[in-house]
Amino acid sequence: MENPHAEHLQELLEGLNEPQREAVTHGEGPLLILAGAGSGKTRVLTHRIAFLVFTDQAQAGEILAITFTNKAAQEMRGRVEHLLGHGTRGMWLMTFHAACARMLRADAERLGYTRQFTIYDQADARRLTKRCIEDLGVDPKRYTPPAILGQISAAKNRLRDAAAYRQQVGSYFEQTVADVYERYERDLHRMNAMDFDDLLFRTVTMLELFEEVRERYAQSFRHVLVDEYQDTNHAQYRFLQLLVGGGRKAPAKGERTSLPGHRNLAVVGDDSQSIYGFRGADVRNILDFQEDFPDARVVKLEQNYRSTQTILSAANAVIANNRGGIAKRLWSALGEGEPIKVRELEDEYSEARFVVGEIERLVDEGASRAEIAVFYRTNAMSRLLEDTLVRREIAYQVIGGTKFYERAEIKDAIAYLSLLANPNDVVSFMRVVNSPRRGIGQTSVGKVVGHAGTMGLSIWEAAERPAEVPGLGTAAQKALARFMDTMHELRGRIEDQDQPSPVGDLLEAVLAQTGYVEALEAERTIEAQGRVENLEQLVQVGNEFDAGNEPSREALDAFLQQIALMADADSRRDEESLVTLMTLHNAKGLEYPIVFVAGCEEGVFPHARALDEGALEEERRLFYVGVTRAMRSLYLTYARRRTIFGAQTAGLASRFLDEVPAELTEFEEQAAPRWGGAGAVSGGRARRRREEDLDIDDGAGHDDAWDGVDVPASAPIRAFRRGQDVTHPAFGEGVVTAVEPGGIIVVRFAEDGSERKLMSEYAQMSGH
DNA sequence: ATCCTGATTTTTTTT
DNA sequence: AAATCAGGAT
């Protein structure tokens, strides 16, 4: 072989099984890799990329590889670099959204945006939708912003603009959506902003409208690879089609049947793991791939390298209840392994205690916390698990939920930057103009925004001349002028040609000069202090960004984009010894030796709302995803009673549990509760008695998870109540301002006005 | 303009 | 149970 990389090639193909090797070495033309759970698809993708480079079929810059999350992209980049033995400069290895944002930045002007356009996340989009609904005089009670935005989003995912949507309205509701959609689009465009769906939609529009742009990308990306193809939506499908050519046999009206192109598209996916239908993902994309590309090479990866045969058999049995789909028979060479542990618990508290107790036991036996994950259907279910973990002092991390970048203070800080970057950004303006309080209330803000709208000014221009805003009170005028003075100063920092401010410095200046941090510190509460710390963290993120980027105007835009497209899954840490908690959706693509799936009850999982929408099969796939994350040990738990929306609900075991063959499981139910507590587990070791009779704390409630907490004999357990006066040996007199779960009380001390969180059973506190 | 309180609503999942 | 929201009091 002449190839100078021959040696590398040899090494690259070693250790791959036959179908994996076939997928890696496939040359030109469409390739469909049906990769069952744990079958080494990431391996195939990374090796294929390296193979293409080593065989000179593509330069690094000629490869576009799409992943689902930034984290996955980073991981893949790392692995590809490792295989290549050098960097991956120029390779587009990122999410759909990031790739689209990058393309749009380059040619935004063609669509009437500047390259500083702002990306609105869902919360921003929702607020804007709400405003549109109100502006149109529609009752936001009758049609809620999320409902309408959901329709708009679905339309965008199917590449329907407002006009196209209007053409097919069939109900009054849809009529209303059409009205809102039109206005929403107009406002977004005026604000030089795009929502998540726009990133794809606008990119597709751009590629369709401007043939030279399409050709530029189509030619430069000689090979396109897509991970998690089963979760692509129509817009993403069309995007790929525009880049590689080929296309659907029966195109929707108005679509070109087929496009010219190299058709070097390799997709990897598993229809059994399609779990994003609710946000427009269309399994048909993967199911119809062979119709779209009749000459596609199809490779099935069916050997699972992750799980025991027991776990796989359970997964196979459950998924067999779904109709259709592509037949696969996953098998493992890892042996039978241990049975799946199914546990019925009394209520969610017992469930949490069981899970945490089991984690403790496993850790005692030598397992690392990092090997353990707990999955649940909804984010709300993490709280109780967290409480219980905290009590037992087990280090953990939660993925998802209240994300760092969704915290109010972080969004405020980012909104300041957005407004500085994009003077049309009304949503950001509204967010920060009175935060911290400056005496510019809703009415005043409404007047300024309205004025900008009618005069066709950017919000920045309108705010610059408060005197010209009709009806604006003098106090508000003054306050606004002061605010804009500050904003001008800050803007000067980024427009300084000689020395543009680095992002971290700019952030610090924003937080200082706007008085934001000052206002927080003035609150003198624990919460406010936590916010300040979050902001410090954000500045740190900025500094880290600066370390890799020359300070410039463009750097700020890039930073904002990076933040906007950041997902919480990206913050997952693997190294530290932490138990990981997350929703089943977040679990896709991951694996853990020990997995708990909590809340396996009818109505919870499958979720009642999903059942309403006829999405049972998607729920089942979600269960399948959960089960197949486990390598050697799997626990499935459910509670007979659970509090939902503050109401007690009777729980029935999930139908998915019935679908797991009994011979693969080991079932234990909790004995019927006796008065005053439950806890005996049949066949298992005796559980600690629940100390319900201790009247601890206030209405925060069912604090029954006190077992295991060592209470010093000298400190009497007492119930602290909000408003109660207390004396602390060190901090002096104070008043209880809050009682939190976990035996934590918040006390504001008279001495210095400070507020502190204290563990009530340790604090030598005397109540009065 | 801001704060407080009571009523209402929410919890599916996320780039 | 918690969070958001509207309306009313200050």
Task: Indicate the low-confidence ranges by residue numbers.
Answer: 673-718, 760-764
Shape: globular
Which whole number gives the mean pLDDT? Answer: 84
Largest sheet: 8 strands, mixed
The counted number of beta strands is 23
Rg (CA only): 28 Å
What is the count of helical runs? 30
Proportion in helices: 40-55%
Structural class: alpha/beta
Distance between the termini: 88 Å
- Strand fraction equals 5-15%
Which oligomerization state do the chains in this entry correspond to? single chain
How would you characterize the overall build of this protein?
- Helix 1 (6-13) packs antiparallel against helix 3 (41-54), helix 7 packs across helix 9 and helix 18 (408-421) packs across helix 19.
- Strands 11, 12, 13, 14, 15, 16, 17 and 18 form an eight-stranded mixed sheet that branches.
- The longest helix is centred in the middle third of the chain and has 22 residues, at 474-495.
- The chain starts with 5 loop residues before the first helix and ends with a strand.
- The chain is built from 30 helices and 23 strands.
- 43% of the residues lie in helices and 15% in strands.
- By secondary structure, it is α/β, with parallel strands linked by helices.
- The chain binds a DNA duplex (15 and 10 nucleotides) through helix 5, helix 10, helix 20, helix 27 and helix 28.
